[in-house]
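Suppose a colleague, Dr. K., hands you the sequence of a protein chain of 454 amino acids and asks what its three-dimensional shape might be. Before reaching for any lab equipment, you can write down a predicted structure in token form. Begin with the sequence itself:
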Amino acid sequence: MSSKGKSGKTGLIFFPAFDWAISPTHPEREERLLYTRDQIFEEGLMDLPQIDEYKPRLAEMLDIARVHFCVPDVESQITEAHLIAAGSTLTLADALESGEIRNGFALVRPPGHHSMRVVHGNRGFCNINNMAILVEYMRSKYGHKRIAVIDTDVHHGDGTQEIFWHDPDVLCISFHQDGHTLYPGTGFVNEMGGPQALARTLNIPLPPGTTDEGIHYVLDRLILPVLDEFKPDLILNSAGQDNHYTDPLANMRFSANGYARLNEKLAPDICVLEGGYAVETALPYVNTGIIQAMAGLDYSHLKEPDFVPGRFVQSEQMSREIEATVAQVQRLWDDRDELVKDALEGLGDFYRRKKRIFYDTDMINESQEETVRLCPNCSGYMTISTQAQRGYGILNSAFCVSIPRKACASCREDAKEEYEEHIDDCRIGYVCMQDKDRDTFKFHNNMTHTQKSY
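The predicted structure, expressed as tokens, is then:
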């Protein structure tokens, strides 16, 4: 069960990552948190008894490897800043589970929700997925079974979606600006999970210009009722602030007060900061509103200096479009069990899909083939063949094996055989294996014939 109610406090962690940047002028920079921190201190929020500030800590390599297949290895894909950003979410998880806090907000960077299961570099400003690392930590250390991740970033949370695509016990809901108009160009209604987890991924693409009215319609008519049915142990929020009307990278019309009301209704156990790039005009006010809502404080007078009531009006056509999308997604949720049954009847022992993934920050093209054993006795093991290219040159290739929680003896044995068969295969650079039940990770370098474990 959730740890809500054990304490009335809200835990906060700030980590601006002064020593990490994609470039000196990049929009994902340390000022994203510095203005917020100034605003919170100016408002005196840190002096209130309802709020406790926590110090961040480093995540361990296993915390990363529990989620990601980093190629060529974990160490090559991260910096200390990434370990601290991820570790901050785990600090709040420990505080939540111990009853020290009722909820928590990790105001950290670098962000993470565009990072997928396999990592060859940085895409969408993300190397590792802080939210997914938090989810798997909560499951491995504290035994949570069902977790809901609500992604409120203006960009589709494609990395988090991909990591939990085949997992019916993690409900991933993302509302975002329509992918036809914005990076990463995904997040459409028909993206709803693998055959064993259909409609446990729900996407609500919204038209550019959507206001507080539209986003709260989605929350009230779809997200909250679905959560009531799913009954998660935990509700986690990938809290992107770039739906705000001043954000320079998107085209939505959400306000700081609208964000605060959303947080009050959603009542997440832990929020993890994702995007948001209006560092002066939005982030200080949005983050302050979220903190006030989480702590049960009055946010009714919260508004941006340039906010004018009634400035943004949602057209009837836009409202009809949002209503139609919500109705479509609701039907998928209602039919989820039948969708899974029908999908599995048309498949054999294995489900396969091929993917091409572009790392826009590092200009890497990845080719993947994913195979999932459709086992009648467990959720089945997964293998991924991956190759990354930059320009015309091959960067790295790997064969990855993931053994799920509660794997049956047959799947466990077959997965180990797949791992062993690819060791020392000269056509593959690296061979990796995750074992979720044993909470271990093996990594074999086929070029140096060396192995390490986490």
